[in-house]
Every structure is written in structure tokens, then in C-alpha cells.
Amino acid sequence: MEIKDIIIFDGECNLCNGVVGWLLKFAPQDLFDFVPFQSPYGQELLKSNGFPTQQLDTVILIDNSGLHTHSDGFLRVISKIPKWQRVAALLAFIPRLLRDYIYKTASKHRLLWFGTSNSCTISLK
């Protein structure tokens, strides 16, 4: 049995839930394990990797090459989806400083812009 890549996300963020829903539709089914940071497993993963447990300001991808956050994490996630590999490759040409600025701005305002949800796309683990 192959180990899936782990995506830690904010299960109460509408934007994050929307991205997870999109990934569930387009990513190969056996590729990702989605873990809301609010879940016991999410809390355990955050603690063991040195992240705060009260809030999450980035998607976190844990794969066989390590831990990836911010725009690098997002690009790495979409690069694993066959039909989106070219898009990820093109976006990777944008300097990380600019990509991370855009990512961090969206992350900072995501709850204001997209709202929160009382339920998560994924059942809590």
C-alpha cells in the first residue's frame, strides 16, 4: 500500500473547503489524504512539525520529499494532478517572492473574502 501525500488545511474556511472539493474532483483518488487542522490528527501533525495549533495561514503538503507551504506547497499540490502539471510549471516561473506575496495576501483575507463554514468538506479524523 502506497502512502498518500497529506494536505493539512483549514476545515472552517470556505476557500480552503472549495479547493479541497476541487481537488477531490480533479486529483487521482489515491493521491491525497486531506486533514483539517482542527482535527485531532491535524493538531498532532501541526505540533510534530513545529506549527502553531490555534490557526493555520497556509496549506501544508507533506509528501515523500518533505513539508511544503505557501505558494510552493500549492504549486506542488497542483503539479501532482496530470491535467494541471503545465499550469503548475508555468506558475513556477513567477518568482517565489511575488507568488508568496499574493498567496499570503489571499490567506490573510480569505475568511473575510470567502467566509467561514460550520462544516468541513472532509470528515474530521
The chain-level structural class is alpha+beta
Low-pLDDT windows of residues: none
Instruction: Please summarize the sheet with the most strands.
Output: 4 strands, mixed
Radius of gyration in whole Å, from Cα? 14 Å
How would you describe this structure to a colleague?
- The chain is built from 5 helices and 4 strands.
- Helix 3 runs antiparallel to helix 4 (85-91).
- The chain has a 4-stranded mixed β-sheet, sandwiched between helices.
- Helix content is 46%, strand content 14%.
- The protein is globular and about 35 Å long.
- It has one domain (5-114).
- The chain has helices spanning 14-26, 40-48, 70-79, 85-91, 96-114; strands spanning 5-9, 32-36, 60-63, 66-69.
- It starts with a strand and ends in an 11-residue tail after the last helix.
- The chain has 125 residues and is an alpha+beta fold.
- The longest helix has 19 residues, at 96-114.
- The mean pLDDT is 86.
